[in-house]
């Protein structure tokens, strides 16, 4: 990639490129070569303070929250145009900074970014930000007010996509944002900031500065932040939620998952199993909503294990720059160590490695793990209960539909899931019984911009995407209307 995209010297604060307060710099290491491929400055408290102050001024005194929704929509639509032109830059950077296979980039890194800005532009043109309510001799005007300044904190697996999930609705609502990209993959977020500036977002409405855990905690604690929107691990989400609780600060959390796909006894295993294996290995398994538990009828279990092992062994593993590669490296050496540790735990607990389980023999460099299928897994095992975040799929047998539902719901998480059957109506009946935020029926799978995404239980709080994503950045307000003002604002109900 162009050095201009990979070596950054400044932050984006207040509508311009700003020098960092310290000389701390972070080398970005390629997961496939283990070599430094880029560099960014590291935000310290003084940088965070400047960014929040810029966002606070833009929100409190600037034009953005006071624009008509149509005016904000025009800017969002221009942003979508610019972002489509920059998709190759975003994809190329993520290949180098976090190891995303280039074949996966349209789905994971760019496919929803411009589309989200278009979606929220269209939504706010028709959204009822005000409504008038009359009952008897009383009347009120109910308005949706932008929540204020939002901290957008995103992980490394899809940094621009997940920043767009939060930034597009926040801007549509009239908020200002401070975006903190992850230290493992901080470079692609700069393209988002550039695109929004080119689209005409007013100065200070969007600010971007990478930093580590200390910078994130300072941002969350900052009294100038009205809301935190976070995607990441459940452990980090719990910490953020506790910090927000100290100030009764608004928070939305999209956290971990251990999602189950229920394969019913009438499913076409020859078609279903390769799809499930491929989905679990997407982005090297580093996807919070991945279906990493597959529940299979005991009568067809051996057949399914054999098919899953064959599908995993057929997946091309290698250089993420190669269009033929499907599974690239894990983001960091520590992540590979974590995944290998879980594979060891599985074996010690009695699970059988049906495929993979090792480092690829043909790759001497890079943080790779073979696509791995674990058979004879019991739902009580740690590998079935904890998020591994790597290319590891657990196959769990069940005896009947009720048992399948019970096993699927027996998890501290509830982010995603799926049901597969030759009878779509039967699959839908089972899907309705699953306690999870998003459910695929025969592969017809959210997320897409128009429907909400988020989790039950420890998988999160609140929803992103859809009208729900916009509402998460709005505060409802009620204004009493005297008789002289009734019928002049909002839709009377």
TrEMBL record:
Residues 17-478 form the Aldehyde dehydrogenase domain. InterPro entries: Ald_DH/histidinol_DH, Ald_DH_C, Ald_DH_CS_GLU, Ald_DH_N, Aldehyde_DH_dom. Gene3D superfamilies: Aldehyde Dehydrogenase, Chain A, domain 1 (3.40.605.10), Aldehyde Dehydrogenase, Chain A, domain 2 (3.40.309.10). Keywords: Oxidoreductase. This is Aldehyde dehydrogenase. The keyword Oxidoreductase applies. Belongs to the aldehyde dehydrogenase family. It comes from the Bacteria. The keyword Oxidoreductase applies. CDD domains: ALDH_AldA-Rv0768 (cd07139). The active site is at residue 254. Pfam families: Aldedh (PF00171).
